[in-house]
Amino acid sequence: PELRDIELVHRLDRETSGVLLLAKKRSALRSLHDELRDGATDKHYLALVDGKWRDDKRAVKAPLLKYVNAEGERRVSVSKDGQASETVFRLLRRWPQACLLDCELLTGRTHQIRVHLQHTGHPIAGDDKYGDYDWNHELARMGLKRMFLHAARISFTHPSTGETMTVEAPLPAALQVLVERLDALAVGEAGS
Question: Which element (helix H / strand E) includes 118?
Fold first, then answer.
């Protein structure tokens, strides 16, 4: 209550967990917005994706266009008429049916990671907007109750001190449990 002017520096999709920056001063908010706009922040997410991701590192440059569908729902798609956007994906873990990726945002468009991964044929686990319905249903039986997208780390320049700051958020327990179940399934499949 004593912080009357606290404001969000950026947003996360509703089901995305992890790091969220807040500014206590208007000057800090402006400074951090400038950093975000200029690409001076370093933002990394973790995403569990369907299928076998082949590359250790892959940059996806695909312009994104926002639109409203017939049901009045806001959506985003890859379109030559969209805004330039780029995400760098790095393979962290591989299981027979899924992969865990580090997703580095080089631009910050709405639903960027989700749409870039859908575009590559590797939708995010539990994504009810851009994901694979059947795979999501299978994962729900394994206990996944949300989208597996987590804002793991952000680095930025502190607006007052000029110091480089890095803030990290560990994977939530519910997502960690799924990783452990995938590990157990992989061990079981390897043993049979």
Answer: helix 112-119
The half-sphere exposure of 28 on its side-chain side, counting CA atoms within 13 A, is: 18
For residues 33 and 42, give the distance between their C-alpha atoms in angstroms, rounded to a whole number. Answer: 13
The residues assigned a catalytic role are 13
- C-alpha 83/C-alpha 78 separation (Å) is 9
Note the pLDDT tens digit of each residue in 131-189: 999 999 999 999 999 999 999 999 999 999 999 999 999 999 999 999 999 999 887 66
| DSSP for residue 128 | T
A 10 A CB-CB count for 1 gives 3
Q: Residue 172 and residue 155: Cα distance in Å, rounded?
A: 20
Spatial separation of the C-alpha atoms in residues 91 and 89, rounded to whole Å: 7
Q: In the numeric block, which tokens belong to residue 113?
A: 């990671």
Q: What span, in angstroms and rounded, lies between the C-alpha atoms of 149 and 90? A: 14
Q: How far apart are CA 53 and CA 95, in angstroms?
A: 10
